[in-house]
Amino acid sequence: MSLLGPEPPEPLPGTFVDEELRQHHSDLLFRVRLKAGSEAFAYMLLEHKSSPDPGARLQLLRYVVRILTHWYKQNQPKLPLPPVLPLLANQGPGDWNYSCEFADLFGAVPLAMTPYLPSFRHALVDLPRVGDLALSTEVRLRAFLKALKYIRRVDLSDRIDILLAEAPALDEKDLRVILTYLDKGAVALNNKVMREALLRLVPNQTEQIMGCLTQPYYDQGKAEGKAEGRVEGEANILARLLERRFGTLPDPLRQRIFTADVGSIEAWVERAFDAPDLQSIFDSN
Question: What does DSSP say about strands 10-12 and 84-90: parallel, antiparallel, or unpaired?
Fold first, then answer.
C-alpha cells in the first residue's frame, strides 16, 4: 500500500478466467497508479472450490500472462510492461496450507536450473483465518466478506446471526443481495432460519425482504404451471412457495392445498408472501 499513489484503484471490465473454470473461480482486475507515477495492475482471483487447490498458482500465472499479453497488444511496441500484483483469495471453509511461491511447484531441482524457472509470488487473503472484525473496518464491505467466508460452512445455520450481525446498518438492497447469495450456496439454508434471524436483527424489514426472496420461486412455479392443469399448477406454485418460506408442509395441509379450488389457492398465494406463519395464511378470512 505504501507504493500506491492517492488515486483510487480503477476497476477494469472483463474476466481472464478459463470458461470451464468459472464455476470455481472469479476474478477482478484494477488499474492502480504508483507514487512514482507509473501504472500497475492488481489482479485478484477468488477461489470458490470446497478445498484449496495447489494448482491455483499455475492458473494465476496463466491469467497474469493473459493480462500482460492483452496490454502489450494494445500498447506495442511500448515497454516496459506494467507490473501485475497477483492476489489469491481463499473462500474456505478449509485453510490455505500451500506455498505462495510458484517455483515450489517444481519441487527439488538442480540449483543450476533455478534461474531458468518461472518464478513469482502471489499475495494471499485466507478468509477462514481472518477474524470477522478484521475483515474490514467498513461495515458494508465487512458484511459482504463475511458472506464469502461463511457460505460454505456446514454450520452455516448455526452462525447466521454472526454472519448477519451488520444487517441493522445495511441498506435493504444490500441485505437482499447477501441473502440471495446465501440462498444459492452449496450449504442448504432454510428460509425459516433466515426469517427468524431477520426478526431478531431487522424486525421491521423482515416480511418485505422475505417476500423478495420468495418471489423468484413463485415466478418459476408460475411458468412451470402453464404446462399443467390450472388447478394443479396453482397448487404446485403455492406448495413450493410455502416450503421455501416455512419448510416441509404437513401432509394434511398439502392435501388441503391440492383439493382446493383455484380461487382459494390464489388467495393463499397472495397472503403467503407477507404472512409470518402458516396459520395466518389459511385461517384468514
Answer: unpaired
Mutual angle of helices 191-201 and 206-225, in 10-degree steps: 160
C-alpha angle 48-72-63 in degrees, rounded to nearest 5: 15
Comparing CA positions, the residue from 116, 136, 115 lying closest to residue 125 is 136
The kind and range of the H/E element at 24 are none
pLDDT of residue 227: 45
**In the chain, what are the domain boundaries?**
1-129, 204-282
Distance of CA 223 to the CA centre of its chain: 26
Instruction: Compute how many other C-beta atoms are within 10 angstroms of the C-beta atom of residue 54.
Output: 12
Cell of 25: 473461480
Reported as a single tens digit per residue, the pLDDT across 138-150 is: 999 999 999 999 9
φ, ψ of residue 262 to 5 degrees: the values are: -60, -40
Give the angle subtended at the CA of 142 by the CAs of 7 and 244, to the nearest 5°.
130
pTM over 0.85: no
Place of cell 452462525: 159
Q: Which of 1, 32, 36, 30 is nearest to 13 (CA)?
A: 30
Whose cell is 475483515? That residue is 135
